[in-house]
Automatic annotation (TrEMBL):
PANTHER family recorded: DUF753 DOMAIN-CONTAINING PROTEIN-RELATED, PROTEIN CBG25136-RELATED
The organism's place on the tree of life at top rank: Eukaryota
Alphabetical keyword list: Signal
Name recorded for this polypeptide: Uncharacterized protein
KW Iron-sulfur (keyword) present: no
InterPro entries recorded: Snake_toxin-like_sf (IPR045860)
Signal peptide: 1-26
Length: 331
């Protein structure tokens, strides 16, 4: 009796604490795929964006979907100004973020400030280019294929963002394996081949002319101090594809995983290594925190980036600090 009483009190106390902390921090948002949302979620921000996951060249849903949901956790900067990003050419909205109750619902979205964005032109090299040598996308890719021993094959191209916000965190980096299928142009038949595909992405005009991370081998030896788990698991149509478990070396270890109860990709979990460009720039929605989560409709997604190296964290904090004045609301 004694034990259960104190346990009961403790539980009551925790519940009170929990409800205070969540009500003071979180915002209630629409959570769905498509337009008519019946469900809610809670997060630091409401966002609306697109979802079009890929496995190599193949799209895993029939067409690009609109998703509305909640974004949270310490990798996302606090106090971001509400806005929508709209392509100036097509007038299509790519992304909206805001932090008041249900601010991505229906007409409330139209009231958000719109910022114009452009697709960028990238060099295109490889079979996927057909006979073009440039393409347009949200970001440019530079992919090194190490599958044939002693022969690096380089392909380049364009990528449209395929999952909510997380790919943007990798702009200005090279990673193995690629974070998403959209980040390379290879037809992967053996999942273990993903260990041999290095993908780099960048987001300025023709930035994939050369490798986006140009750090010298000598310098890389100093920067790449993290030994990370290296593994990919994908479940599509009830079928599991799983690589071996290995280790890789990078500046940061990363992990992205998602569950989606609808759609052809039910589960995806990728762990690997990433190294950022020394000169660095980071999308202003990101802070130097470790993790970000998105919940929306049938989709739960989480990404974390970690380094035990103080110098890597200092470099990251310097880059984030550069952004602060421009993107964060004065408080
Ligand atoms: C990849 O495979 C698909 C079908 O299996 C094919 O249609 C496509 O042309 C291939 N792409 C490349 C770049 O080889
Ligand atoms: C996805 O499901 C797995 C297994 O149930 C779970 O461990 C993981 O945390 C889930 N991921 C997300 C992002 O919710």
């Amino acid at each position: 009796i004694e034990m259960s009483l104190s346990h009961g009190r403790f539980l009551f106390f925790s519940l009170v604490l929990l409800s205070i902390s969540s009500s003071s921090l979180a915002v209630i948002c629409d959570s769905c795929e498509g337009e008519d949302c019946l469900a809610d979620c809670e997060g630091d921000y409401c966002i609306q964006t697109t979802f079009n996951p890929k496995w190599g060249q193949r799209s895993l849903i029939d067409s690009k979907k609109r998703v509305k949901g909640c974004l949270k956790n310490d990798m996302i900067v606090k106090g971001l100004k509400p806005r929508c990003d709209q392509y100036s050419k097509s007038g299509k909205t790519e992304f909206c973020i805001c932090n008041t109750k249900k601010c991505t619902s229906g007409q409330k979205l139209d009231k958000l400030k719109t910022e114009k964005i452009e697709k960028i032109t990238c060099e295109c090299v490889g079979a996927h280019c057909k006979d073009r040598n440039t393409c347009e996308g949200d970001v440019c890719t530079y992919v090194v294929d190490y599958r044939i021993p002693k022969k690096k094959t380089i392909t380049k191209g364009c990528m449209d963002l395929s999952i909510p916000v997380f790919e943007r965190r990798m702009i200005g980096s090279c990673m193995v394996p690629p974070l998403t299928g959209a980040m390379h142009h290879e037809n992967i038949t053996n999942v273990n081949d993903l260990f041999k595909i290095e993908s780099c992405i960048c987001a300025t005009e023709k930035c994939n002319k050369k490798k986006p991370v140009t750090t010298s081998e000598r310098e890389l030896k100093k920067i790449e101090t993290e030994k990370c788990d290296f593994e990919v698991i994908g479940v599509t149509g009830g079928k599991t594809m799983r690589t071996l478990k290995k280790k890789c070396t990078g500046e940061f270890c990363y992990r992205l995983n998602f569950n989606s109860t609808k759609g052809k990709m039910e589960h995806y979990d990728v762990k690997g290594c990433v190294t950022f460009n020394n000169e660095g720039a980071i999308d202003p929605i990101f802070s130097s925190g470790n993790c970000a989560e998105f919940t929306g409709g049938e989709l739960d997604m989480k990404m974390c980036l970690k380094s035990e190296n103080d110098e890597a964290m200092e470099r990251l904090e310097a880059v984030v600090k550069n952004n602060e004045d421009e993107s964060v609301e004065a408080t």
